[in-house]
Amino acid sequence: MNRLALLVVGAGPAGIFAALRSGLPPEQVLIVDEGREVEARLGARRFGLDVPGTIATGFGGAGLFSNGQLCLTHQIGSTIAHRFPAAEVNRRQHAIDAILHDGMDIGELRPIGPAAGIAATARRHGLSYLQYAVRQLDSDQLIRMTTRLRDRILHTARLSCETACVAIEPTGGGWLVRLEGKLNGVFEAANVVLAPGKAGAGWLRETGTALGLSREAAAPRLGVRLQGPAGFLSALLAGSGDPRLTWSVGDGVRVRLQNLSDGDVVPATSQGLIVVGGTSARAAGFERSSGTVMVTSGLCAADVRRIVAGVNDASRDGVLTQSLPEFLAGGGGLDEHYPARLTELLRRFVLRLANVCPEVLHPSTVVHGPAVEGLTDRFDVTDELEARGRPGLYLAGDGPGLTGGIIGAADSGWLAGASIARRSGRTAARPRTRRPVPGVRTGPAAAPARDAGRPSDGVTVVPPAG
Questions:
Q1: What is the rounded distance in angstroms from the CA atom of residue 405 to the CA atom of residue 375?
Q2: Spatial distance between the Cα atoms of 176 and 174, rounded to a whole number of angstroms
Q3: Helix and strand numbers, DSSP H then E, in the chain
């Protein structure tokens, strides 16, 4: 029997930081992921092989491979951050940010700036404007970051990609986990962290049902990805690198613009479906920008899956693209698949947005769909990210519906790893912000001191009038 102190399923931000923070000896920690290693993912993307799967799975997860935004705020990207004081979340997020870009010259974190004019214009048209600090990375920087993180994790844990977890069950001393792929066998682990990302949410739902884990039904959001000329949303970016613009329609219905990027729009897999939810990070010379418009309108997960499956079947590559003028005129394209109420809300929001960013109505602007968020059930966990009633089993990241984005996912892994360290009688390791020396294993670090002088979270919320 192979015995471990910690087995992590999923090598995205949540799984990586759970392992880093646990402070356990490397030979007692194993991370597995059904996707490919960094170099293999790069090669597959370069030759156009399995692009949706390549973007969604593998070391680094979806975000660290394709989305170059590190958003530092307690107000977005997490359903658990509200449980902790904002200053505490802020300290963790800045520590994670420092580890992610350790040793790299990637410029300063972009703080929030003056936004009174933007906010006033948005408010006049019934929109609220949220801004926060963000670090934006281009494609080359993102790949260097992920590669360096992989090199670092190899001094902290054993790593096996293209390895799937096919069964997990409780045992007297922890958990029995059966693996298949490049690494085969049954492992007994005192602690298990399930962090499979959005791509593994379907598997986690089935596994959670088998283990009797409590959870809430998914509350999905459906929308589109707007793509236009470079800078067509620049008016919003004067105050923040990735702001949110929200229209609260009433009765719980909201339409929101988010995830602004200078990168190309790419398809990705999510629970067996093809969606347009992420973009590759911006590349030098790329002359298009984009942003996601999502609608929270009470659709259930089954309805959204059916709608997305219909779009997938109607398109050769699984997504539909139409010009914005065609979309605004109605008929055809996404109108044939989306509920009429939802497409009407999207059109009305775009017209409101055009009052803030007139370039949105540029003739070359296009709409990609389907864009989906929140399609995962939200599992019930303690403040330490442990599944309730299941000692030693932790859930972290986007897969269990707890987070959305790189920093939020990493923060959940940080919490799980710290809990495992405490219960193992070790000091939670605060990984040093310098690259480990090859061949030398650094022991557990001292408990982190409070970050005196850490900049404030810097979140500004400007509500709409009336």
A1: 14
A2: 7
A3: 12, 21
When divided into structural domains, the chain yields a total of: 2
Q: Which amino acid is at 14?
A: A
- The answer to the question of residue 128 being in a domain is no
18 in Cβ contact with 396 (< 8 Å): yes
Distance CA 353, CA 236 (A): 10
Is the separation of the CB atoms in 92 and 77 below 8 Å? no
From residue 246, give the alpha-carbon distance in Å to each of 129, 191, 254, 261, 450: 7, 40, 7, 17, 35
pLDDT tens figures, 273-295: 899 865 554 544 567 888 999 99
Which of 321, 351, 375 corresponds to the end of one domain?
A: 375
pTM check: above 0.70: yes
Residues 240 and 188 in one domain: no
Residues 6 or more apart whose Cβ sits within 8 Å of residue 387: 211, 213, 379, 380, 381, 393, 394, 395
The answer to whether position 53 is within a domain reads: yes
Residue 232's domain spans which residues?
A: 219-375
Spatial contact of 393 and 372, defined as CB atoms under 8 Å apart = no
- 71 and 209: one domain? yes
**In terms of domains, do 209 and 231 share one?**
no
Do 333 and 424 belong to one domain? no
> Does residue 464 sit within a domain?
no
Question: Is 466 contained in some domain?
Answer: no
Digit-coded pLDDT (tens) for 286-345: 678 889 999 997 899 999 999 999 999 999 889 999 999 999 999 889 999 999 999 999
Burial (CB count within 10 angstroms: exposed 0-12, middle 13-18, buried 19+), residue 198? buried
Read off the amino acid at residue 7.
Answer: L
Q: Are 431 and 301 members of one domain? A: no
Token code pair at residue 157: 């844990």
Rounded to whole angstroms, the Cα distance separating 148 from 69 reads: 17
